[in-house]
Design goal:
Elements lengths: L43 H17 L4 H12 L5 H8 L13 H8 L3 H9 L8 H28 L5
Helix pairs in contact: 1-4, 2-3, 2-4
């Protein structure tokens, strides 16, 4: 009878593939998809706050609200005034909403992805920008290549190494 092997502690190895359906302990947590419960996706206060946050962050970089509005107008081809931004960001102005079509211009004008990331998080998505997106795509391609290598090795073993 062969001696029994002692169990070894689990070691997280990024090169080791995980079983299908079993999340990797090294993986970045991904937001859960929305539950669909009534009122669970209400986000008007968050939108107001995050638009204000983006504009305030731009102020730290030397851009006034008027400058942000002017840049957004330039980018969208629509007239967007400082007063319009103020109305969209004031919780006291319940009838005013920040239009979704302004979101790309807000991001470019303020260099803030906070609102986009918050909205993505609410629906179980993740926003990747620049190098993050490239790294994620490279990771996907590496995983596909590993899968193809494993399938190829399995076929070679099954058919006696013949190609």
């Amino acid at each position: 009878m062969a001696p029994r092997r002692r169990s070894s502690p689990t070691i997280c190895d990024p090169a080791q593939p995980t079983l299908p359906g079993v999340p990797s302990p090294l993986a970045t947590p991904v937001p859960a998809p929305p539950t669909g419960l009534p009122g669970s996706l209400s986000c008007s206060a968050a939108v107001c706050g995050l638009v204000s946050y983006a504009i305030d962050e731009a102020r730290g970089a030397g851009l006034s609200r008027a400058m942000v509005a002017a840049r957004m107008s330039e980018l969208t081809g629509e007239r967007i005034s400082e007063a319009m931004l103020n109305a969209c960001t004031a919780e006291s102005h319940e009838g005013h909403r920040f239009p979704a079509q302004w979101l790309p211009a807000l991001i470019v004008a303020t260099n803030s992805y906070a609102l986009m990331r918050d909205l993505a998080d609410r629906v179980g998505a993740v926003v990747l920008v620049g190098q993050e997106a490239v790294s994620a795509r490279l990771g996907q391609l590496d995983a596909q290549m590993d899968s193809i290598r494993r399938q190829k090795a399995l076929l070679k073993r099954m058919h006696g190494g013949r190609t």
